[in-house]
Every structure is written in structure tokens, then in C-alpha cells.
Amino acid sequence: MEIRRDRYLNRLASRxxxxxVKVITGIRRCGKSYLLFHxxxxxxxxxxxxxxxxxxxxxxxxxxxSLRDPDELYRFVSxxxxxxxxxxxxxxxxxxxxxxxVINSLHHIENLDIYVTGxxxxxxxxxxxxxxxxxxDEVEIRPLSFSEFASAYPGDREAAWGEYLxxxxxxxxxxxxxxxxxxxxxxxxxxxxxxxxxxxRNGVEMEEMLGLITDSxxxxxxxxxxxxxxxxxxxxxxxxGADNETVSRYIGHLADSFLxxxxxxxxxxxxxxxxxxxxxxxxDVGLRNARxxxxxxxHARIMENIVYNELRSRGFGxxxxxxxxxxxxxxxxxxxxxxxxxxxNMGSRRYYVQSAYSLPDAEKREREIRPFLKTGDSFKKIxxxxxxxxxxxxxxxxxxxxxxxFLLDDGSLDL
Length: 415
Description:
By secondary structure, the protein is of the alpha/beta class.
């Protein structure tokens, strides 16, 4: 089963021969190696690049154990480069000692274009590009978007949506046949892979606290939070070993390993960021649900997380919008901070997006669009809803869009 990952393939292809080391990052098991060793390799071959000019080294393969020695790896790759343009694909590069030095040395070979992936917390840490002394160009891969998931799912889009809400978009989930297999796979990933890596890499001593912080972030997706609030929550649970500094550090470990992303609050009119609180979103809703043992299936929160991930997958920077408003009510002035779920930015483009699982009546819709009417600008404004209805605009030009139409059409924001 081949799943097209055209968003990432196009980003990787656009960076070909740009003089930088292409560093493919992302949460473990999300398809980094598949993108490089299958999709991108096939693109080069189909374009006429000779097979012997693509140097592939899978360092997690026992047959390549000798190449984990940095000098052997350098000799092998450099010795494979002849006349003409060559490409080096180094997979699971963290298996090699001193891999940063090896890559920086290989970078001096002018006719060698270098691509590397890795799958442990050391490599996945977002500060890894500093190891390449400013010569790295990151392509971050995410779990399957809904459109990617639906393209390989053996059912209609409604059935695919129900599955995606529950089990998320880790590629291997599509090969699991039973509910038991899916649940077990996701729980093994969270506990036996991701958290284990974080503990080992960072020398985490309070493993229970890390687990509780993970649970807190999973429970709070789409809600404002900060380390102090989580610290207070741990205190109510009777956990006395938490302090603000430690909680902040552990949240940083979770973010560095791509399990969560932080979205900052942005004052739309004042054009400034608020220091705190923030919102955190899970890299994959299936992993989030698995960590909570599938007990808290809050579809409104989960859909909001999926909308966030979709915007990020499309390449947008995403903030939480804040509109400070002061209205006259009953002869007095009433101050409020109105929230726009997502302010999505890419260059000069901006979209305001609200995620509303349901709009049952006019009052609910009015609450959702009220912040849009206060922005004072003409950027596009979209309400994404779980209600089944065709796309339509109101008298203010605000587009209401069904979640599946939004997710399945890359151009949906410009309808």
C-alpha cells in the first residue's frame, strides 16, 4: 500500500541541490524513511538520475554495522562519489558515532547532495540543526493528514472520518485490522517508544511526573494552559514533587520530541504576543486518545486539534487570535477578550479560522463569528464545522465550511 505524501515530497524536491543538508525531522513512525527511500528516490529515478548516483545507507540495518564507525561511514560515502551529481541518503543517522561531524565533512564534497533522517529523541530534538553549523534545511514530516489517510482507507469518507477521530493518522494504523490491534499499537508507541526516548535522552528522574504532565497536556488540548497551571493541577492530585521550573523543562522535552506543539496568543489589533498562557496541540489525536486510554473522546476538542494540525501541515504558522473589545451595555462599558481559534499566516497571506463541532442555532453561530467582526481587516474568515452542509458565505463574507470539505481540498481556504 503506497500513501502519497505530496506535500512533503514537493517540499523536499524544492530543496534539491540548494547547498544545504536536508534534515528530515518529525515524530517517530510518521513516515520519514518512506518519504526519502521510496517516494523521493523514485522521483529522482523517474527523472533520469542514474541509480548508482544515489548512495543509500540504512544505519539501523545490521549489515551496515561497520558503517556506524564515523571514519568508515565517511570513507564509504565519499568513496562512492564519482563524476556527476550524486545524492546521499543516510537513514537513522544517529546510529553513527559523531554523525554531526561526518555530515559536516561530507558537505564539503561539491557534487554531493545530502539527505538525512533519524528516529530517536537525540536526532528529533528541534535544536539538531545547530549541530550542522547553519548548513541544515529542515523538512518536518507529520502524521498522515486526513486526506492522506482517507486515500488509503478501505471505506467511504464518513467511515474514514470516524476512524481518524479515534485512532489518528500514524501510517501503520492503516495496517491494523482490529480495534485491539490499533489500541495496543498506539499505546506501545506512546509509552514504549516516545516517553522512553525522552526519559533516556534527558535523564528524566521523575518519570511519574512526566507521565502526569503528558496526561495534562492531552486533556487540555484546545484550552489555555501554562506550566504554573499544570503545577497546580499536579498539586491537587497530591503530587508534591512538582515546581514550575521542572514542569516547564518537561513540557520542553515533550515539544522537542514533536509530541506536542505550542500555539501562542496573538493580539490581532495590537500586533503583539502575550507571554502566557498558551494552547498545546497533540501531534496526532490517536496518540492523544491512546494516552488517555480512549476515555475522553471530546469530539469538539479533537476536531480543533485536527484543524490545527491540518493548517500546520499545509505550511502555515498558527497562532491563537485575541481581540480586545470594549462594548457599551446598559449604559456601561464592557471589556472582553474575544478569541479566534487560529490565525494562520504564510508570508503575506492570513486566514482567521474558527473550529466549531456544531452550530445548532443562530446564537451559537453569532458567538463564533463575533470575533471576526471585530478584527477591522479584510483577511479571509472561515468557520469550520462538523455540521454536514455545503460551503456557503453570509452577508459579511464569512465562509462556513464542513470539516471534511476543508480537510479533503488543499484549496479549501480560498473557496
